[in-house]
Specification:
By secondary structure, the chain is α+β, with helices and mostly antiparallel strands. It has a single domain (about 1-150), classed as 2,3-Dihydroxybiphenyl 1,2-Dioxygenase, domain 1 (Roll), CATH 3.10.180.10. It has helices at about 10-20, 35-45, 85-90, 105-115, and strands at about 1-5, 30-35, 50-55, 60-65, 75-80, 100-105, 120, 125-130, 130-135, 145-150. A hairpin with a 5-residue loop joins strand 9 (about 130-135) and strand 10 (about 145-150). The two termini are about 15 Å apart.
Amino acid sequence: MVTAFVAISQSYWFRIRYFCRYDYQNNTDSVLVRDVDEAKAYYVDVLGFFLVNDLTFGKDWRYVTVAPDETNETVIELVKAETEVQRSLVGKQSGGQVLLMFQTDDIEADYAAMKKRGVRFSGKPQAVPGGRGVGFVDCYGNNFDVFQPD
């Protein structure tokens, strides 16, 4: 089961931990979307994530978060792209690189279940440094990885 986020590179984490006085943790990653309901349906129904929050604060702010597991401390906030610049970044906010990496304890089972629900993968799980991994894209074209450490 996909259970954790790995949202920053190991070298970046090393620099933060050893050269700063604080031990930072990431609690929310934002993903720009064209339509919050469309994105929510994809992340819940196709990726198999859990809906953590769907709250409305006033007429202009909706807070929708999802996570790969109901016990995750880190969530993805699905943020409606409002401005022209934000709309231009939907599906491209990581510049063609991996936006987030999800850690699993059984990559083959997760790959099979996600593929059956219609997730588009870049290939099959294969050996990568430190374990096994495979990439996939969401409904907007954002790149993600699933990784199982050795």
